[in-house]
Amino acid sequence: ACAFAGLWNCVTINPLNIAAGVWMMLNAFVLFLCEAPFCCQFIEFANAVSARADKLRPWQKAAFYCGMAVFPVMLSLTLTTLFGNAIAFATGVLYGLSALGKKGDAISYARIHQQQKQMDEEKLTGALEGQA
After folding, report:
1. Is the C-alpha dihedral spanning 8, 12, 16, 22 positive or negative?
2. At 36, phi and psi to the nearest 5?
3. Residue 35: partners with Cβ closer than 8 Å, 6 or more residues away
4. Is Signal one of the keywords (predicted)?
5. What are phi and psi of 102, to 5 degrees?
6. What is the end-to-end Cα distance of the chain in Å, rounded?
């Protein structure tokens, strides 16, 4: 979607639209190299780029993909750039959510809250006994 929208964005005379379109096609190529290197088997360095991208932490990938997707939108704010970069941005958002970790269950959260409440009560009781 990013590559097709970038190509469509290049069919204009406005230089900012052309620059945004070229950037979007570059984004699509980088996403293919990092996320689906089997689609780029004709490129020798595809596996090396993919291996390097796999070593990055999820929050680093999130920042990279989201930043990569926001730049063309800042160059040329059109529906084509918005829809074309939506998938790249969504990929970054998903990596950001995976960096946050999985959601804790309610039972363990309740235990932690109960233990913290118990410790606060013990501190308060100890402070009151010390004053008396």
Report:
1. positive
2. -140, 70
3. 50, 53, 91
4. no
5. -80, 155
6. 73
Contact 6, 67 (CB under 8 A): no
Nearest to 33 by CA among 25, 23, 43: 43
* pTM, 2 dp: 0.66
Q: Domain map of the chain by residue range?
A: 1-76, 79-131
How far apart are the C-alpha atoms of 72 and 84, rounded to whole Å?
A: 10
The string of pLDDT tens digits covering residues 61-108 is: 888 888 888 888 888 888 888 888 888 888 888 888 888 777 666 677
The candidate with the shortest Cα–Cα distance to 80, out of 3, 4, 5, 1, is: 5
Distance CA 28, CA 111 (A): 46
Closest to 44 measured CA to CA, from 36, 35, 33, 54 = 33
Name the packing angle between helices 15-35 and 58-75 (round to 10°).
Answer: 160
Query: H helices then E strands: how many in the chain?
Result: 6, 0
Residue with tokens 């929050």: 59
